[in-house]
Amino acid sequence: MAPGDARATAPTPTASTPTASTRTAPAAATGFHVSAGGRLLEANGNDFVMRGVNHAHAWYPNRTSSLADVKALGANTVRVVLSTGDQWTKNDTADVAAVVAQCKQNRLICVLEAHDTTGYGEQSAAVSLSRAADYWISVKSALQGQEQYVLVNIGNEPYGNTNTTGWTADTKAAIQKLRAAGFGHTLMVDAPNWGQDWSHTMRDNAAAVFAADPERNTVFSIHMYGVFDTAAEINAYLNHFVAARLPIVVGEFGHDHSDGNPDEDTILATTQALGLGYLGWSWSGNGGGVEYLDMATGFDPAALTTWGRRIFNGANGIAATAKEATVYAGDGGDPGDPAPTPGCAVSYRVTNQWDGGFQAELTVRNTGSSPISGWKLAWSYANGQTISQMWGGSPIQSGPAVTVVPASYTSVIPANGGSVGLGFLGTWNGAANSHPAAFTLNGSTCSQT
Length: 449
Fold this sequence. Notes:
There is one protein chain. By secondary structure, the protein is an alpha/beta fold. Helix content is 21%, strand content 24%. The strands form 5 sheets. An 8-stranded parallel β-sheet has the order 9-8-7-6-5-4-3-10. It has a 5-stranded mixed β-sheet with strand order 15-19-12-11-22, with no helix packed on it. It has a 5-stranded antiparallel β-sheet with strand order 16-17-14-20-21, with no helix packed on it.
């Protein structure tokens, strides 16, 4: 997405479905790869569904703390804006390596994208996909050996609305150039029409593009703004790829846009139902009249906007649906990268209670030898309790089940007995306001004190 993008109205989707070529995932994959059924898998074969946001690193290179902030809010992936140097300051090899290291430090999967291709053919300053491929080759040393953590999004929105038929050949050629240069990473390719594919160029040629990748390891990315303003359009487009067994993610979307009002509720619901990834645009720093797409005001995770609260904490949002990549649990990672299973103890205490309401405090203690960051605490209630307000974290509640992600100031639980505290107000309507029977931290059961 770029400020001032020209968008167009989508024609009615057709029922034709391309057939994906037969393929088999590598027997011993070294990183992310696409299965025969069109699913994105980790090196160990675990199904991985992206749940995250875009971050404009190229324009805000000093905002690296944003990665920790989006992780603390529950994300498992971040799509990082980079520049080839043609339109903005180049993100060189050292900077790319630093970004990858920060993603790994924060237990995030990194989707790296070159933004200078945006609107090629219509935007005069935009560069070709071939030029973007040259950029990736120039920073290859920062990416080698990172196939378990990094996907390479060759070029952002690589065609505008002009001469979009060139997208197919250019995309095939860029993929093949990277493979010839030794890239084994999962590659991601954006659609033309400023990413929205209203011409269905990507949709109708996706099978051929996929087959042109000798590794059969390419994922398609659709950007959903005003073109996708109805549930019918969203469902038709995504289901078309699923039926064709071709990998698809929603690489960008928002809750509003100058070209129309995207149906974000359906985007979130449909991707969740189909098990497809999504990456919302964008964390913070938007300009050019689309400032409303900021999820956090001034990069402050404690100042989420309406859009930020929706995508992180709403129905089918990031906090409720994201699952951390298993490479960060020590399953197939580099020898120095595995994270220990967290040891934890939870203290839950009702500090005040009245008819139908109560106040409680909860302490989460790290009993392990390594800090725990980007945590997610979960429990279930038995007496109709509902949390109405919380400090120290953000709750997501579905019936009796509660999931909490931390605030920025509680995002790290220090090792060797370090702790963080939560406080909250709630209501209850059962026979008793009983304590939860069990707590889990990042999926591991905690003792209770």
